[in-house]
Fold this protein.
Amino acid sequence: MALLGRLFVDGLERPSYKIMANNPSEPKPQEDRVLTSARREAIVVFVVWALALTYTVSVCYFYGYGRDPKSLKFVLGFPDWVFWGIIVPWAVCIVFSLYFGARFVRDEKLEEEPAETPVAPSKSEGSEEMTNVEGRTSKE
């Protein structure tokens, strides 16, 4: 478990900051807001998934296995351990997903992309004319 936690934390480190740490005179680069938002959302989703998994497996194991069949009770037509261990967590996760998507997930504005430098097209076969970067044509 510690290895998994370490791998998760290592994945959140910013490599560019490690490089910049050796030269304190240079300012730290600003992390993109889209990346920050995506990281925060991924952490929340992972935590909710882990909690739902732990709850579901625990309830199904402790209330479903090694149980006397005469002690089974039914809730809405499902055995009680199925209802409380599978149906309820799924319903809670669906409601959470709707809330999470509507209230927590944000649409960040993308930054302006730098203008690309034009690349001259390659000479086509059978043609003796070439177009340079400015759009002028020259004969070879």
